[in-house]
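Notes from the 1:1 (GR / supervisor)

We went over the backlog. Supervisor wanted to see one worked example end to end before approving the batch request, so GR pasted a single chain during the call. The sequence is below; no edits were made to it. Supervisor asked that the structure be written out right there so they could see what the output format looks like.
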Amino acid sequence: MELPIETLIFLVTVAFMAGGIDAMAGGGGLLTIPALMAAGVPPVSALATNKLQSSAGTASAFVAFWRAGHIDLRRFAWPVIAAIIGSGAGAVAVQQVDPSFLSGIVPLLLILMCIYFIASPKMGAADRRARISNLGLTLLIGAIGFYDGFFGPGTGSFLTTALVALAGLGLLRAIANAKLLNLATNLAGLVALIAGGQMLWLLGFSMAAANVAGNQVGARLAIRYGGAGVRPLLVIMSAALTIKLLSDPANPIWHIL
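Structure output shown during the call:
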């Protein structure tokens, strides 16, 4: 699939911004998936290409948090396994869905993600007592992994929220370990989507380079300042891109309504 140079520049810029936002608070896919679809990329290929660029960016942020000593591999070993299994299953499932169904449902899912970001409570910085067993957390991470493989936007934020609210982690440690879990879901989903032949390689690698750069900037800002202040920008931009998708008269949702 060939894209005009101005469209490629737009997508690479969005990938950079999404990387920074993803490293700080999660939810970068709220920008990249609607941007890819608005550029005319088919829904499943958009999910696959987004998974490639987000995998590279998440890996970059993971390394930054790992070097800073904020990752707890031993504690989250089983949740990582559940994340891999769940995401792989979700990525296989999404390739069995009618693309027109995805084109119609994606804007609705994005609207729900915006509502989540607006309504979700502020998260504290200090560690607290865990409110869920490791088995319960593992099952929850597996379910979030399935969602990430099937769709994806907001996964980083869901993981961060779960680690703060249920696992008792402070915000910075939750953001860091969410990168570990999100990397597992990204890689599992990526392998399944590549196997399905859905990848736009050149576009994916171009966006991946930009996403890595954005994640490095975002990870350093998160380590220094935390993830505050990102949500309003994320909601505004994702809402604008969702409106762009809904403004297309050919969107299947208008035929349903």
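Supervisor's comment: The first helix runs from residue 5 to 25.
Batch request approved.
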